[in-house]
Amino acid sequence: MDIERENHKLEKRLCREVGRAIVDFNMIEEGDRVMVCVSGGKDSYGLLDILLKLQQRAPVNFELIAVNLDQKQPGFPEHVLPEYLGKLGVKFHIENQDTYSIVKRVIPEGKTLCSLCSRLRRGILYRVAGELGATKIALGHHRDDILQTLLLNMFFGGKLKGMPPKLVSDDGRNVVIRPLAYVPEKDLARWAEVRQFPIIPCTLCGSQENLQRKQVGNLLREWDAKFPGRVENMFNALQNVVPSHLLDRSLFPFETLCATGEANEDGDKAFDEEPCAPPAAAGADGNPSWVRPVIPITAGD
Ligand code: SF4
Fold it and tell me: 116 CA distance to ligand 1 centroid (A)?
């Protein structure tokens, strides 16, 4: 297949998946003013790009306003985003706030800067959303961010918790949406190449990327390469939760559970064999190894 057709398919897939997430979670409604947070990374460029395309054909009218927070990191190329956004013709706002100096001053040398930096950024973006009259704040997190968060919460937080596609902000004043929730990161990486987004590196602050998140990201990429379908299945599982088969007593009334006296064809076959038992290799007789007759071992064998 030639590159152009391949790119066209990718564009269609991106629009379809973003549109599906918007509909599934009722992310954007008539009259919304959506503030799209654009950092200069591939994901947020992709988000803005696809939302602009969808805006042309959506059944509802909504406004888009791109917002970049210039955190005054050394070497941040401050002309790049205004130039790019100006050429696109989209409304935009650059918020200048020197959180870099605050973080550097407060956090001791050698400690990771990210948690304070993100907290400051979040607060500023929520304030800006209010000032701009935005009704929704769109963030560029994608499917793999959601899965990484799920695994990190399981491994280190003791919680079965991912990243919501839509939520009310912690100050209660904003609705935050993640329209890329269904989009795999590899599609965004490819789209960034196709569209030649002027990427601004995220390492300007000199802080280390979260090592655990990086490791989990590598693990997902490895699974995706070795076991096609596994990552998709994990993501589907997030949309197919069975509280009666987990152990959270607040989600299922185990205490009051009693026999109904009625058979249920779709009910759980509690004593059936594990559906996921690995298939045994068939022997020469065609039987899996565990049903082959046991040949007694005699002396001299
Ligand atoms: S990598 Fe730098 S800019 Fe990004 S959250 Fe961490 S400290 Fe902030």
Answer: 9
